[in-house]
Amino acid sequence: MKKANRHLDQYQFTVRPLSKEEGGGYLVEYPDLPGCMSDGETIEEALANGREALRDCLAVFKELGRKVPKPVVEAAQWRQRLPRTLYSKLTRQAENEGVSINSLVTAIIAEAIGAKQAP
């Protein structure tokens, strides 16, 4: 399962807030797989739904015998030292939301970038 998750982690995604006219919440899209997207009321829900959509899209490619698009740019990794108080707050928030710290921080960063790119 970990190997499959690492494969999914290689696909970049975008997150943007949806306007009230679009139904509100957040939209997750995978640019390497046009049409592969999902949404959710919260960023965390949108990310979870997006990951499920990604799994489904990749499964359809395989079922149809089509070549699965490779990620254009693989996911990157960096390490950053945090003040203990900030780490503690992130840990509590991640636990409250039932996600990992990595998922929470990814969602926070994606939301900030999406908000800057939103019209």
How would you concisely characterize the structure shown here?
With 119 residues, the chain is mainly alpha-helical. The chain contains 4 helices and 3 strands.
Structure description:
With 119 residues, the protein is mostly helical. It has a single domain, classed as Double Stranded RNA Binding Domain (2-Layer Sandwich), CATH 3.30.160.250. It contains four helices and three strands; from the N terminus they run αβββααα. The protein has a three-stranded antiparallel sheet with strand order 1-2-3. Strand 1 and strand 2 form a beta hairpin. The chain is globular. The termini are far apart.
Biggest sheet, strands in spatial order?
1-2-3
Oligomeric nature of the chains: single chain
How far apart are the first and last residues' alpha carbons, in Å?
Answer: 38 Å
> In the residues, how many domains can be counted?
1
Query: Strand count, sense and closure of the main sheet?
Result: 3 strands, antiparallel
Q: CATH fold name, please? A: Double Stranded RNA Binding Domain
For the structure shown, list the relevant keywords.
Double Stranded RNA Binding Domain, 119 residues, 50% helix, single chain, mainly alpha, globular, 4 helices, three-stranded antiparallel beta sheet
Secondary-structure map with pairings?
Layout lengths: L1 H8 L4 E4 L8 E4 L7 E4 L2 H21 L20 H14 L3 H17 L2
Antiparallel strand pairs: 1-2, 2-3
Helix pairs in contact: 3-4
